[in-house]
Amino acid sequence: VPAGRLPPLSGRVYGRRWLVLLLFSLLGFAQGLVWNTWGPIQNSARLAFGFSGWDIALLVFWGPIGFAPCFFFMWLMDKKGLRVTVLLTSSLMVLGAGLRCVPVSDLEIRKKLIHGGQLLNGLAGPTVMNAAPFLSTTWFSPDERATATAIASLLNYLGSAAAFLVGPLVVPPPNGTAQLGAPSNTQHIKDRIEAVLYAEFGMVSLIFSAALAYFPSRPPFPPSVAAASQRLSYRRSFCRLLSNFRFLMVALAYAIPLGVFSGWSGVLDLILTPIHVSQVDAGWIGFWSIVGGCVVGIAMARFADFIRGMLKFILLLLLSGATLASTWFTLTCLTSVTHLPLTTATLYTSCILLGIFLNSSVPIFFELFVETVYPVPEGISCGVVTFLSNVFMGVLLFFLTFYHTEFSWFNWCLPGSCLLSLLLILCFRESYDRLYLDVVVSV
């Protein structure tokens, strides 16, 4: 490049972008891991800490409750950038994980500290779930954006999947040491749960230290025209979003099924226990469903980077698969009525397929939101839809705290929400305003 001239906008990418992506993704992973600590080991937690079914549902419920200040975090990201927002988020996670480890002998006080820790971790949710498109636009070129969004957003889901694996493997179920006396059995389970809590606290503290040492807000030069362009103000962005019918349509298409699925997967062990599925099997089902979704989601995002303008088509495929898989699972659970075979293989297959189709749709939805409402800042548009998703999740878990003895109504919410989302996307008219700017203006 001749002296005095800047390189083309499309070439301004920096190798450190992968380090920034890694740190943010690890933060999302840890937040998902801490949030989903209790669901996979709910039977053990009941014995060790005296949790009730209401307590278990509430521990999961703190996740959507943590989205109450979502708009504050969107404002902070828009005004102060990624570094300040990430450091505040990670400090809340450190404090929350630390509260859960306070060694108090009084079980009632201990339960309150654990609930408080889960709430603080829930407050980190708005950043780790909303900031992925903002990070990808800020640091990555147009032909890497969807992939970066997928990695940054799906690692949070992978963290909750790891909880399905770590919890049941480290913490024995109540009947796993039944040959021991009851007091020693309880103490052994409690010790193993506390080992998990300490390990999660150490992980969160390490990630916070790394982010404090190095996590820049933005690169020296923007990687694309869209990254360098002027965005709407905070107030004008909300007015634009609320008056955009196409955005509201695609926002509901995302929020309803993902909110229902998040609430359902958070209490999967509770749902599968009545049909005689063990805590370990429920953990493996949840683990593989989310891992499959992460792998397929990143692959789909890479495909979207190579062949642009295919977001709606990809979503139609994924939502069709999710509708069929959720219907299969729901009918299988009603085996006395449908006479479908209720086996470990059918439960594994239907749940894993459902997780693959729904979780892999998340980064595709995020990219579609940004393209639809550009020049609204990415953090604001994605913040609104994830807030809406957590509202649906919160309403569902709120009803679950009262109707937790029978789950057929909960299972039917899955295919209903997937079908509604499929119809909304089918009627949606896609546009690619940000991509048009990058391709045409940069040329």
UniProtKB/TrEMBL annotation:
Chief site of localization: membrane
Cell compartment(s), UniProt: Lysosome membrane
GO cellular component, one term: lysosomal membrane
Entry annotated with the keyword Methyltransferase: no
Coiled coil (UniProt feature): none
Protein family: Belongs to the major facilitator superfamily.
Function comment: Mediates H(+)-dependent pyridoxine transport.
Protein name per Swiss-Prot or TrEMBL: DIRC2 protein
Organism per entry: Agelaius phoeniceus
Gene of this entry: Dirc2
